[in-house]
Structure formats: structure tokens, C-alpha cells
Amino acid sequence: MSDTPTRPSTSVEDYVKVVYDLQERGTGPVTISGMAERLSVSNSSVSGMLRKLGELGLVEHRRYGTVSLTEAGTKAALSVLRRHRLLETYLVAALGYSWDEVHDEAEILEHVVSDKFVDRIASYLGDPVVDPHGDPIPTSEGHIVERPSVLLSDAEEGVEGVIVRVNDTDPHLLRYLADIEIGIGMSVRVVERQPFAGSLRIAVRPDHETPAHDRSLGLVAAEALWIAPDGS
Fold first, then answer.
1. Contact (CB, 8 A) for 33 and 64
2. Which of 146, 169, 93, 167 is nearest to 124 (CA)?
3. Where's the HTH dtxR-type domain (predicted)?
4. Long-range contacts at 199-202 (CB < 8 A, ≥ 24 apart)
5. Mean per-residue pLDDT, 96-111
6. What is the fold, at CATH topology level, of the domain defined by 150-229?
7. What integer pLDDT is reported at residue 27 of this predicted model?
8. DSSP 153
9. Which of the two ends of the chain, N or C, has the fewest CB atoms closer than 10 A to its terminal CB?
């Protein structure tokens, strides 16, 4: 008989992970419609699953209200996020995947690998604290190293910082950012906000030796990038 605790079902893990991710990224209260859009399912499907998650003690949700995780739900979400983000890191570091390829692979693998296997990956990689997209990797105890950051789309003109995180849910956007040479660790300065054009003009410097180059960045891309402002 196995001593391994019973793991939640794939659908339960997917739902608590989405609730946590929507909370973590600070895009506002988590709602049924927001979850439905993220999961590409109907509002009624989300409502039905939330009832089940409530019965399991993983979420708190009142009809027509917002959704939040309980302590047990947060623990379950952090467990699956640890697996997901370490798998993404391993796929890039050891198997040569690009950052736009790993999300879908990790979505499948996260539900089947053991915690022991994931802990071995963490040890092999030197216990990284962020994945290739800058998302924080929970420790096995459920702790996260947070770094102060703001969305690039919210940064005022003249603000400078380092790109520390990018939303990994759209591989097309990740490929676009790679094509225009914007990535994690690069320095960026907001040169001009162009609200009526729906874009920002930014100066990007890949490293200290390379001169900065100007880029016009649409708000969709700017809303997917987080920077750690200088001095934070």
C-alpha cells in the first residue's frame, strides 16, 4: 500500500491553478467569466466545478460573487505550480525547448510526474526560484520568493527597470517578443506613452555593453510584461 497522499484530479488541479494564477498576477478579482475565458469553457461549466471545489474545501465562492482559494486550495495550487514551472525550466535548460514551446508540454506533464521526480529536477537545476518566463517557483514547502514588479503597461514615462516576468499563456506573443528581441533580464525605459495609438515607445538594452534601441510596443504586449523598477 502506497504512503503517497492522494493527489487531486487533473480538473481540480487545473481549476485551483487558474484561480491562483489570476490572483497572483493582480488583474483584479477572480470571476466566473474570467475563469471561463482562461479555461476556454462555458460559465456554467465553471459554476458547476466551483460547487465541487467548494464541497472539497478548496475555494470560497458566493453566487454572483468573486472566487478565492482557501488555505487548502492555495496549498494544492502551489503544488501543481511547482511541478509546472520546474518542468518548464527543465525543458528549456536540459532539452533545448524555446520559451514559447514549454507551457503546453508542462500542462500535460504536471499531472503525471511524481513530487519525488520534480524534487530531483529542482536539485539538478540548482533549486531555481523562477522559471523561463520569470514566474516564481514555489518551494516544496509552498514558499515563494517575491520580487516587487509592475506591469510595463502601467509604468509612467521615464520609468526604468528590468524585465522580470512575462505572461506565458500565449505562445504567439512569446514568439513575437523573441522576434523583436525583448526578454527576461533586459533593461527597459518608458520613453513615451501613446494612449491614443494604443502603444508605448520604449528603449530596450539587452546588456550593459549593447546600446539601447527604441521599440514601439502594443498595449497587449505591454500588459504581458512585468518590470522591476530601478531602486525597488
1. no
2. 93
3. 1-70
4. 200/152, 200/153, 202/152
5. 94
6. SH3 type barrels. (2.30.30)
7. 63
8. G
9. N
